[in-house]
Design brief:
Layout: E1 4-8, H1 21-30, E2 34-39, E3 44-48, H2 55-70, E4 76-80, H3 81-89, E5 103-108, H4 114-118, E6 129-133, E7 136-140, H5 156-159, E8 163-167, H6 168-179
Antiparallel strand pairs: 1-3, 1-4, 2-3, 5-7, 5-8, 6-7
Helix pairs in contact: 3-6
Length: 181
Amino acid sequence: MARYAALLRGINVGGNKKVPMVQLRQLLEGLGFTRVVTLLQSGNVVFTPPGKPSSSSLEARLEKAIEAEFGFPVGVVVRSRDQLAQAIDHNPLEGADQEPSKFLVVFLSGKPDPQKLKAIDPAAYEPDVFRLAGHQLYARFPNGMGRSKLAPLLTSIKLGVTATGRNWNTVKKLLELAGEE
């Protein structure tokens, strides 16, 4: 059975959109998912769904169930174990393993609006850099994300698709959890 990771966007930040991980696990188990494991408090959940659903059908199902359970909408991006492995293997930027806290993978629900992406002038945000590869945006913030003027542009509103970022260590840990039998 294929393992998946669901990445919830914008929960448990600054006391807003509170989603307790215990309750999230129970919700997924109630939907018939098995081997449900959460990582951190920021909306990372790894699971095995019944059958062979697509990532997009899982996203829609989870978004609907989460809104019904918690009373507010939450964007969800789902990746299979193999898609997580590809996201790591196809990283177009150097330095992720050397400074993982300064490296972000932004998982996208689809291709971002080309005009919106083109409007971001990479030279204006140096030394920060970003690259689009498939349905992921990769970014490196040598001076940290907190000071970056680029980081706020890599969001759902700015890109026109659901976008949720995870640092390099979290992405690798999600792959590890998704690979466990």
